[in-house]
Amino acid sequence: MSATTPTVVKLGGSTLHAMPDAWWDDLAEHGRTHPLVLVHGWSRPLRLLRPEYSEPSAILRDRYGNQSRWTTPEVLADIKQVSAALTEQLDGLLGARGISTERVVGSDGLVGAAAGERWWWKDKQLVELDNLVGPITDVDPTLLKGLRPGHCVLVTPLARNTAGQEVNTDGDRAAAAVSGALGATALVLVTDVPHLLIDDRPVHRITAEAVAEFRDKGATGGMRKKLRAAGEALERGVQRVVIGSAPVTDLLAGRTGTVITPS
Ligand SMILES: Nc1ncnc2c1ncn2[C@@H]1O[C@H](COP(=O)(O)OP(=O)(O)O)[C@@H](O)[C@H]1O
Ligand SMILES: [Mg+2]
User: Where is the Aspartate/glutamate/uridylate kinase domain (predicted)?
Assistant: First the structure.
């Protein structure tokens, strides 16, 4: 990995609050020699803001079984409020360690999305709903031109759809699209579990093909999305995706976590 190759890290909303000082020290140390992109999640802070977002009705499932948060304009406003606070927190943590930051909200031109699915399962019926979500179609890397060692771009994974609407999108898949667009060699998905589990056993290495086969059978919720994101990143030329909960340099070195490779 050359010093100019950016490292893309997605930090899950489930775990952001729990990363110890040593995790931030490690990220800053890595960031001194590698440009950093940190894509943040928001699941836990959003639940803390409004407990009703924990209720099953807050999540919709499409015809294919893909889940997403039912995103109304009010939910989007809550996401933006929580994300602004998170970004400030991240800026404080990295700034204190000598890494400068800038914020890019995906919907400000970084991430494009297609029109969203309109039919969703509700109370065991498929119903037509306005849901401000959309599948990512493209990333414009010119918005990331400030990348350099010692600097970290903080990305809020929202997108803009073809109708010009701001939409919610999946953070893992956004990070995959960003890493592909940047030509990053690795994508690190930091979450609240140390490994992918298959049959309750930790997986240390796995190929994209095996992941695709396992994904729809054995993984649920957040992990299913991560595996989908991993496949997308590898398809876009990223050489490996690492999922885990350890310091980024340990994950990049394959000392822990689950390393997913094209073959
Ligand atoms: N096969 C699996 N192996 C590991 N974790 C899994 C698996 N299937 C589902 N999960 C769940 O996926 C979660 C991680 O996804 P998620 O909650 O979305 O975290 P994040 O906030 O990092 O995106 C884990 O906490 C775990 O409960
Ligand atoms: Mg998740």
Answer: 7-244
